[in-house]
Amino acid sequence: MIKRLFLLLFLLLLLGGGAAYFLVPWNDVLERKIISFLHERGIENVAFDIDTVGLHSATIKDISIGAENPLVLQSFTVQYDPRELARGNLQDISLSGLTVKLIQTKEGWSVAGTEGILPKKEKKGAGLALSDIVDLLPFTKVEIRDSILDIAGTGVQTSLPFSLTLTKTPETILDMTVNAANLTSAASDVALGVIHITAKPDGNRDWAGSWSLESLDFGEALPVPVLAASGSLSYVGSVLSVKGSADDAAKTHKATFDMLVDTADPAKNKITVSSVSFPFKNGNVSSKNIVVPFDRKKNVTVNLNVRKVSLDDLMQTLTQGRVSATGTVSGSVPVIIRPDGSYTLGEGSLKADDKGLLQMPGEMIPGDTEQMTLV
User: Fold this and answer.
1) Other beta carbons within 10 Å of 369
2) Could you write out the DSSP letters of every residue in 218-286?
3) Which of 61, 164, 196, 369 is the most exposed place for a label (fewest CB within 10 A)?
4) What confidence tens digit (pLDDT) does each residue in 172-185 have?
């Protein structure tokens, strides 16, 4: 449906362009005809200005589709050959200033302003595959510049400046660059550097590719150095799967992870940290198999494996400098992280690796604080 819509629309534009020599003001007449054409096909609340129409290209500006949370586009240019257009083929399309808003609902994710444009799901919970969307576009090449992807989810919100090129011949390749942005959640803000994504379809109409992230800065939310990350991705049906690893420049902070995004069932969206390790108090702390749902409504328990951590540094931190010690400890401590980002320590076990000395003021014994319980 959408492919026929594009072709009929540009045939109408081309005919209108030819009438420009005889009709004044032709732009207003053609704009009303196009709006009526779209209205008859279920596409409402459309506004735009026709800039130029020629035998080989057309440009439309200031496009808005939809009433609430509209799809916005500053400039739209398409190139075509009249003979190829008659056969149902368009050439290149260039978009500038596109604002796309992804909204999460109980039924899944939707693109604001595309009601009546994208085909309806065949059944409840079914997502639209990426190959289906690409097939709908009657262009050999699509280029998007200076645009914004707004993501409004229940667990995460962000605004991502991006550019994108989709080439369909001789080989289908998607190349996307996301500029620096902030990722906001209920727990923290994370600064993202430039992200580069490349993907192409396989023989089963699924997609696979690679990605890289120049920098990942957790700021005050997590006291770790700036990380860089890279990995692979796949898009099977309505499910996006991202696998990768991250580390800092010194290779002391490391993590491997995978992320699952199901556009048809947001309840399944999650990040799984397969392994993570980092230096701590002259020792090392690690963990594995940490599952964090996007829509966090419950506590997440992270079991930390502690190895040869300085007992003196640990006690100084927990007791604000009032207790000193010698030696190191190892063991495990569960950390319970609440949805708001705060955390508490669970019941764990730390044992001295060798003989040591613990010194504290007498008034601190006994105690019923959380810190003293750990001591």
Assistant:
1) 11
2) -GGGS----EEEEEEEEEETTEEEEEEEEE-TTS-SEEEEEEEEESS-GGG-EEEEEEEEEEETTEEEE
3) 369
4) 999 999 987 887 76
* Token pair in block for residue 277: 């390790």
Query: In terms of residues, how long is the chain?
Result: 375
Q: How many CB atoms lie within 10 A of CB 120?
A: 10
Q: What percentage of the chain carries pLDDT values higher than 70? A: 74
The tokens of 191 are what?
């600064």
Report the candidate in 73, 149, 171, 158 with the shortest Cα–Cα distance to residue 117: 73
Q: Which residue has the tokens 């009526």?
A: 36
Report the chain's mean pLDDT, rounded to a whole number: 79
Cβ(200)–Cβ(174) below 8 Å: yes
Rounded CA gap, 13 and 21, in Å? 14
Helix (H), strand (E) counts: the chain: 6, 24
End-to-end CA distance of the chain: 68
In this predicted structure, what is the pLDDT of residue 345? 82
Contact yes or no for 194/180 (Cβ under 8 A) = yes
Report how far residue 292's alpha carbon sits from residue 163's, in angstroms, rounded to the nearest whole number: 29
Which amino acid is residue 96, in one-letter code?
S
Contacts of 21 (CB under 8 A, 6+ apart): none
pTM: 0.76
C-alpha pair distances (Å), 110 with each of 19, 60, 103, 234? 38, 25, 5, 20
Chain position carrying tokens 């494996």: 305
Q: Which residues pair with 94 in a beta bridge?
A: 77, 143
**Residues 362, 151: Cα–Cα separation, whole Å:** 55
Coil/strand/helix, residue 31: helix
**Which of 109, 108, 112 lies closest to 98 in space, CA to CA?**
112
Q: What is the pLDDT of residue 21?
A: 41
The dihedral region occupied by 122, where left means phi > 0, alpha psi between -120 and 50, and beta the remainder, is alpha
Angstrom CA distances, 190 to 75, 144, 157, 182, 359, stand at 31, 26, 11, 6, 40
Q: Which two tokens stand for residue 327?
A: 């030696």
For residue 195, the model assigns a pLDDT of: 94
Q: What 3-state class would DSSP assign to 313? A: helix
